[in-house]
Amino acid sequence: MAPRYQNRIELLQGTLDLLILQTLRWGPQHGYGISQTIRTNSGDILQVDTGSLYPALHRLERQKWVAADWKVSENKQRVRVYRLTARGKKQLESERSRWAQVSDAIAGVLNPAKKESEA
Amino acid sequence: MTFSFWHRQKRESELEEELQSHLQMAAQDRADRGESPEQAKGAARRELGNVGLIKEVTREMLGWASVERLMQDLRYGFRMLAKSPGFTGVAILTLALGIGANTALFSVVNGVLFNPLPYPHPDQLVWVAESKPNFATGSISFPNFRDWQKNNRTFSAMGAYRPYSYNLTGLGEAEQLRSMLITSDFFSVLSVNPQIGRSFAPGEDEIGAAPIAMISAGLWKRKFGSSPDAVGKTLSLDGKNFTIVGVLPAGFDLGLGSFRNVDIYVPLGQWSNPLLPKRGAGLGIHGIGRLKTGISIAQARADMEAVTGSLATAYPDADKGIGAAVISLKQEMVGDLRLFLLVLLAAVGFVLLIACVNVANLMVARSSARMREFAIRTALGASQGRLLRQLLTESILLSFTGGVLGLLLAAWGTKAALHQLPVNLPRSGEVALDARVLIFTLIISLACGIFFGLAPAFKSARPNLHDTFKEGGRGGSGARHRAQGMFVVVEMAMALVLLIAAGLMIRSLGALWNVNPGFDPHNVLAFGVALPPSMNSTGPAGARAALRRLNDALSAVPGVTASSLSWGAIPMDSDDEDLFWIEGKPKPASENDMDWALSYVVQENYLQVMRIPLERGRFFTARDDESAPHVIVVDDVFARQYFPDQNPIGQHVFLQNKGGRAEIIGIVGHVKQWGLDTDDTESLRAQLYFPYMQLPDQAMDASSWSGTGALVRFDPKVPAIGDALRAAVRRLSAEHVMYGAQTMDDIISSSLATRKVSMILLGVFAALALGLASIGIYGVISYLVGQRTQEIGIRLALGAKRTDVLRLVLGEGMKMAALGLMIGLVAALGLTRLMAGLLFGVSATDPLTFAAVALLLTLVALAACYIPARRAMRVDPMVALRYE
């Protein structure tokens, strides 16, 4: 029970970073927007936990992969808007290719027969 | 700092605002989808989760949290500790005692063993002596010393010293002062300069130079009120006027035993001993030296080997077989104490460990009471690491408070304890709480905190929420019992090791006290009498008459049953040797080829005074005087060594320095001259007795000595015998001074002082360990009985006998104790070997001590378990079950 939030961050760490960076590729967004986009784009399957999102955003900011500015939203609300930096784009590239490798690898493990027949 | 704090505040409020806007947007979305505003708000908040935790985790990401969390933990820790003052008080006091004792002992070890000597380039300082066939470190003859000084190539300076005592007259009441005869180089070796005046110049230490002296700061203050005019004034020492040329700095104490409380330094050449210019004479002169830069002790030894080698060739008569011993000065000062101090440091370290285990035990007991608190904090989202940090913060807070208190105890106690020590601890003036001691205390405090904080922390930081809440806080898990049981085992094992160490010391001392010293030391007083300087001109006959008058005066004192003046050796106190050869054998070519024996110059009543048994022949009578043929008495070791197949009585020996031929007239028992413990292993053990009045006329020249020794046997029922003797001496003349009185019992006792102190301190530490360990086992068993009250109630209700219950609880305790004893015995077998050097007459693995101590500890453990076991036996099943 105790390590609930932290465990989930650890679990999702690499993946969540990838999802955030990918989301920001389409333009700057605030935290809530990012979580909604991920949720919508995953067909409501991935629900980003707030307790993971903000620590992740601040960490990405510290690593200078994203930058943040305060803006006023359509609803006249001050919001913190995150955008992808040049370094963040590079990071996204490498994370994407790594993700592709990992998912290929997992697919291979899950479907060994198919692989064999291909070989 | 200010900037980062401000920066942090800003980020903090930004994060807050960011989360608020997230909340609002989420609520807005929900409202847009048709939920009521309240519903939407509530759902959004639920979805967001624990705002405080998100903030904390984010803060952690930003790395700001640590300082803030530490402050928070400290505040919380203070509150928790203040809430249970009983626990806190006991824990801090236990730790303060443990840490204080360790700090105190470490400050002694640090000052005595670790700190460099307080002189410039202390590594260059060495102690030198002559190595002879019989003595590894014998005294250096003055002519040899001069040649060493001149011929060596590795020393930048070399100085010699010889303890002496002068009789000071003309400045208030006559008194005996501890003095040191030194060569001119002595203080330049050490780089010590007088605070006023000057040191001795080269040449001023030669025989026949003008009489000058340097005095200690203490004497300067006492006799001259620290007035600078003292330089240039004269001191009347043994009736001769010495001009004061300098005053030493306050607190100068070389740290070699003979330099303690020395008040007067005089050039060695002033010594009127006729043997001083003789190359073969061993007169108690030793040396110190400073090596040239970059020269090692090994190089100096090689150099001195060449020097003494060429001297042996040049003067085979005196120097054949004579080498030089070169030892680091610090080693010479503290060599004997190393083992003693390290054993005590190890023992006191064990006490601290036991104290830590006890505190850890308290912490575990307390943490089980705090199970609910931890469960609640966990439920509220505290992470495991956070709880661990909290527990560690509390324990380190405890150990640091204990450490600070211990430091105060040590600062206050060390000096006091050093004064109480019956051992003349060299360098004790250098014992202080310096940076190294402070760091030591800091480290052991920290280590203690981590040690006893971690054990319960690991237990408590993983609380099982479900069980804890369900049990209503009566969380009793087997793991904790096992942990507490382990503490008991560890405590028992360590207490056993300490008790065995103390037991071995007690057995050693017991064995030593049972050693027959060869004489009866009870009710014997040994002292010196300084004779008036006016006697210098009376000649041998006058001197003998004065000595006879003195002995008559002493034996006339009511309460004195026998008295004898003595010269030379006093058992276990001072020694003197005579060179001789046996008649019928050719006279040896050199003094080095002569035999030698311990020499006691005494009067006819000496055997009554010392109650040494006469084995054969007769002892001296008053008729064995200056006009009678010379006679000697030897001990049985002498008789066996030199006359293995003959009757020594009637044989003659030639004494090199005591008037030649003398007849052996009797054999007495051997006296343990070198101490109860080491006498048997010394190479020089043969003893001979010489009648005082037959000392050659040149030895009866009163100007060459300042007084005589005396020994009296007294009736213990007569009070203040010392005062009566002093008064009798004073009645002879105002210039007769009695000094240095000590009973033979005291002399023996101080020869055992180091061992006695080890025994007392080890005993205290062992008692402390025993007390702590029995409190520990009592606490654990009490706790277990408390936990199992219901179970016991059920057992009783089902028909168990009360004695079964007693056996059950005692068995539980004994299981832990037995395991502890076994581990302790194995550990002791390994560890006590290290203290073998402190033991006497008992092996380091003495089975009797091991068994007795194990039995003692078992009984104590049994007693500690018995009290809670009786409580368990008296459990009323009805009451116990009703609690359910």
Keywords:
heterodimer, A: 119 residues, alpha+beta, Arc Repressor Mutant, subunit A, 3-stranded antiparallel β-sheet, 5 helices, disordered C terminus, B: 884 residues, 6-stranded mixed barrel, 27 helices, 21 strands, elongated
So what's the overall shape of chain B? elongated
Tell me the strand percentage band of chain A: 5-15%
- CATH class label of chain A: Mainly Alpha
**Quick one: how many beta strands of chain A?**
3
Overview of the structural elements:
The complex is a heterodimer of chains A (119) and B (884). Chain A has 119 residues and is of the alpha+beta class. Chain A has a single domain, classed as Winged helix-like DNA-binding domain superfamily/Winged helix DNA-binding domain (Arc Repressor Mutant, subunit A, Orthogonal Bundle). Helix content of chain A is 65%, strand content 13%. Chain A contains 5 helices and 3 strands, in the order H-E-H-H-E-E-H-H. Chain A has helices at 4-24, 31-41, 50-62, 86-110, 112-118; strands at 29-30, 66-72, 78-84. In chain A, strands 1-3-2 form a 3-stranded antiparallel sheet. In chain A, helix 1 (4-24) packs across helix 2, helix 1 crosses helix 3 and helix 1 (4-24) packs across helix 4. The longest helix of chain A has 25 residues, at 86-110. Mean pLDDT of chain A is 78; it is low at 1-12 and 115-119. The two termini of chain B are 58 Å apart. In chain B, a hairpin with a 2-residue loop joins strand 6 and strand 7. A 6-stranded mixed barrel of chain B has the order 2-3-8-5-7-6. A 6-stranded mixed β-barrel of chain B has the order 13-14-19-16-18-17. Chain B has 27 helices and 21 strands. Chain B has 884 residues and is α+β, with helices and mostly antiparallel strands. Chain B folds into 4 domains: 2-63; 133-321, no CATH class; 337-513 and 753-882, no CATH class; 532-735, no CATH class. The interface between A and B is medium-sized, with 28 and 30 residues.
